């Protein structure tokens, strides 16, 4: 941007490099069989986000957030190491699933009684610090859903009525999904947070489908989401404006109010084209508010282009696919559902954010995992990667051989031989015990007396 290397480049590089090294050493010591791609991709995404936030700081000298983002990166990696070291067996999470979910939901209710911040009540502020309980709730609810579905998947898999090609669930099994829907709808109405509803309910429906293999659950989920979203989109002003911008991004330009943030985002993507303008040479700072958090993907789109965005999405796709593979390799239902749920959580968040800033779906106000400014999101995603690392370590760890019964039944010939007693036919070469199928002493174990190769059948 100004023809010289920034003076604090070394500080940022060494800081992120030290964090990556500490995390790598923790994985090598306490999760040596974990998937080898999860941690490097997380570090790469975190570093790319730090670079672009630093670049936007240069365009907004009065609002420097890169140092704070580096501090949050330290906290996130510290929690990653803590999970890798302290969580010896992931199955212990199943014991506390209900307690964690209830505590998290209570925390999520608190912002509903606090003043709105930028149109949404999703923040808890304590002095200069603030955090979003909804970010932590995503992982807590994934653990709860995995525990619940592992216990009740057989009942939920029962088919009720068949309509066309859909096998709808039984009415008596709709209780849990209706309860989750009511909680999500209440959060949406009280906090005007469309993203939380889409993430929570989408996660539950995906995990339901994985646990039961019933497409009817997906149909029920889509209907319930529509029932909750449409009234809020029509009557709540903050969400209603986002729906109007989604339907017509250039609406404010025609009204003489200037381009909206969504229009500026589309201009940034268009200016980036195929290969981008180059890092630091874009104008996405014109988006204004939340350009480093909700809209940071527009800067990536303008300055690294469509090719760079494709590579970025492929990084996320690798993590998601690896998470699904870990779930497939795990044998217990809880671990399998938890791994697939965490991977789906990342996929849903990427889809919701990318879809919002590219006008595919209405904007939700959520942040891009690892890339966007924000401590709550960054810390939560580092915990998510740590859980996938521990699950992958359990899935890929070599299993100990199952011990065989070494003590023969009392009174058998093998028992007598083990005690050094001679059997009735001992000393007669070439003769085995009649009817037992065991060769005699003078015959190799893989040959019978007739000279044909056979396989000895071990006695139970």
Question: Could you explain how this protein is built, in words?
Answer:
With 460 residues, this protein is mostly helical. It is 59% helix and 3% strand. It contains 15 helices and four strands. The strands form two sheets. Strands 1-2 form a two-stranded antiparallel ribbon. Strand 3 and strand 4 (166-169) form a beta hairpin. Helix 5 (133-156) runs parallel beside helix 14, helix 7 packs antiparallel against helix 13 and helix 12 packs parallel to helix 14. It is globular. The N and C termini lie far apart (78 Å). The relative contact order is 0.12.
How many distinct helices? Answer: 15
Strand content: under 5%
Shape: globular
Q: Which structural class is indicated by helix and strand composition? A: mainly alpha
Low-confidence stretches: 422-460
Q: Could you give the order of the helices and strands? A: HHHHEEHEEHHHHHHHHHH
* Strand count: 4
Quick structural gist:
With 460 residues, the chain is mostly helical. The chain is 59% helix and 3% strand. The chain has 15 helices and four strands.
């Amino acid at each position: 941007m100004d023809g010289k290397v920034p003076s604090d480049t070394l500080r940022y590089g060494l800081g992120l490099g030290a964090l990556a090294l500490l995390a790598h050493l923790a994985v090598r010591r306490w999760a040596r069989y974990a998937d080898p791609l999860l941690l490097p991709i997380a570090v790469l995404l975190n570093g790319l986000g730090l670079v672009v936030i630093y670049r936007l700081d240069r365009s907004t000298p009065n609002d420097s957030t890169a140092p704070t983002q580096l501090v949050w990166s330290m906290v996130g990696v510290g929690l990653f190491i803590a999970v890798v070291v302290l969580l010896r067996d992931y199955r212990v999470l199943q014991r506390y699933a209900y307690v964690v979910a209830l505590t998290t939901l209570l925390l999520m209710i608190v912002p509903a009684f606090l003043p709105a911040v930028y149109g949404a009540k999703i923040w808890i502020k304590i002095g200069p610090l603030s955090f979003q309980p909804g970010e932590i709730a995503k992982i807590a609810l994934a653990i709860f859903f995995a525990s619940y579905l592992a216990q009740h998947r057989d009942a939920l898999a029962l088919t009720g009525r068949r309509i066309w090609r859909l096998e709808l669930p039984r009415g008596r099994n709709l209780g849990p999904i209706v309860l989750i829907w009511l909680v999500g709808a209440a959060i949406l109405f009280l906090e005007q947070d469309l993203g939380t509803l889409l993430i929570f309910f989408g996660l539950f429906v995906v995990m339901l489908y994985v646990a039961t293999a019933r497409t009817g659950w997906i149909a029920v989920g889509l209907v319930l989401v529509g029932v909750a979203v449409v009234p809020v989109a029509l009557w709540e002003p903050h969400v209603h404006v986002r729906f109007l911008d989604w339907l017509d991004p250039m609406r404010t330009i025609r009204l003489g109010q200037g381009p909206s943030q969504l229009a500026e985002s589309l201009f940034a993507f268009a200016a980036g084209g195929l290969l981008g303008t180059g890092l630091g040479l874009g104008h996405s700072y014109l988006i204004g508010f939340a350009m480093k958090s909700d809209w940071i993907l527009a800067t990536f789109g303008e300055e690294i282009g469509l090719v760079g965005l494709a590579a970025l999405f492929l990084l996320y796709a690798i993590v998601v696919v690896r998470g699904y593979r870990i779930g497939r390799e795990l044998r217990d239902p809880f671990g399998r559902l938890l791994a697939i749920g965490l991977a789906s959580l990342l996929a849903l968040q990427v889809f919701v954010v990318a879809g919002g800033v590219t006008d595919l779906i209405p904007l939700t106000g959520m942040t891009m995992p690892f890339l966007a400014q924000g401590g709550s999101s960054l810390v939560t995603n580092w915990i998510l990667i740590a859980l996938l690392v521990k699950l992958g370590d359990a899935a890929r760890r070599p299993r100990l051989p199952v011990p065989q019964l070494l003590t023969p039944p009392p009174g058998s010939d093998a028992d007598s031989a083990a005690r050094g007693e001679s059997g009735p036919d001992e000393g007669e070469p070439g003769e085995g015990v009649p009817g037992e199928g065991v060769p005699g002493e003078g015959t190799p174990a893989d040959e019978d007396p007739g000279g044909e190769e056979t396989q000895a059948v071990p006695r139970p």
